[in-house]
């Protein structure tokens, strides 16, 4: 299969490109810079130059491919307005990619976060929250899944709050960045809230499986660990960086603060059973041991 990939140099996208190539697929990858183009070419991918905002370029990529994996997400500054702009761009991108696939029965796999469900572990059957600061992304993903009725084999891989590699990535990576800036390994809330996690290489394997075999209109969870306590995450960060560990106000984390403070465990039992996905890489706390002071 020739696969058009967006975000192919990111924390998850780079492993997705490698995973696809290792399993016999050809990759056409979007690159917005010379550096990204060089990285993709060295990995063995063909490059299509352009930005996420270049919807005509995205359409041309889809037209040249047998399937699509969309893992790019626009860079948002840490403000409500910046996040809103990124959400608007994501909505336009998914609409353009999906429209190009209508009536073709070709697959597209996109990404979202795992849902938060009050008082329980979220499963693949639970709907995404279409309200709140990232609700627009959920609405765009739902619209893409609805294209299953129009001849698109659409699916979504829901990624946990932390997709990590070498101690970096996701919510835990943001805690690391904040700790380096502030001199405190801080956490919001009381620290008992749980965040699900997955190694980026394991997430990449699930994107490939969904591309190859997921039925139209389905949702899957790239969850290795159902939930690590945020205090445990911050404790490892503090020890590795030689910093004190302390609770800090939600506001210190900008528009993500309220989300960071939520207890949001998630399961992948259905995904493992239905698609045969088996995570094999280190869990989050073990991976954080790779952090350098």
TrEMBL record:
Residues 3-215 form the NAD-dependent epimerase/dehydratase domain. InterPro entries: Epimerase_deHydtase, NAD(P)-bd_dom_sf, NAD(P)-dependent_oxidoreduct. This is SDR family oxidoreductase. It comes from Actinomycetospora atypica. The lineage of its organism: Bacteria, Bacillati, Actinomycetota, Actinomycetes, Pseudonocardiales.
């Amino acid at each position: 299969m020739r696969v058009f990939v967006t975000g192919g140099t990111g924390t998850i996208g780079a492993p997705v490109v490698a995973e696809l190539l290792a399993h016999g697929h050809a990759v056409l990858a979007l690159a917005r810079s010379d550096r990204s183009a060089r990285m993709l070419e060295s990995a063995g991918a063909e490059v299509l130059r352009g930005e996420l905002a270049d919807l005509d370029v995205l359409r041309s990529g889809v037209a040249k491919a047998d399937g699509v994996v969309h893992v790019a997400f626009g860079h948002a500054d840490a403000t409500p307005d910046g996040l809103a702009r990124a959400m608007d761009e994501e909505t336009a991108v998914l609409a353009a990619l999906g429209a190009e696939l209508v009536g073709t029965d070709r697959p597209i796999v996109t990404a979202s976060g795992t849902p938060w469900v009050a008082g329980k572990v979220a499963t693949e059957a639970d709907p995404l929250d279409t309200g709140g600061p990232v609700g627009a992304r959920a609405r765009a993903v739902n619209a893409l899944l609805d294209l299953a009725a129009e001849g698109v084999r659409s699916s979504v891989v829901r990624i946990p709050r932390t997709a990590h590699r070498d101690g970096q990535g996701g919510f835990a990576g943001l805690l690391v960045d904040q700790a380096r800036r502030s001199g405190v390994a801080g956490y919001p809330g009381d620290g008992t809230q749980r965040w699900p996690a997955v190694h980026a290489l394991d997430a990449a394997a699930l994107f490939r499986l969904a591309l190859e075999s997921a039925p139209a209109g389905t949702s899957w969870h790239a969850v290795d660990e159902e939930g690590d306590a945020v205090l445990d995450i911050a404790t490892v960060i503090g020890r590795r960086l030689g910093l004190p560990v302390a609770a800090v106000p939600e506001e210190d984390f900008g528009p993500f603060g309220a989300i960071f403070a939520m207890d949001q465990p998630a399961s992948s039992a259905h995904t493992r059973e239905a698609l045969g996905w088996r995570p094999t890489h280190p869990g989050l706390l073990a991976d954080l041991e790779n952090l350098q002071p």
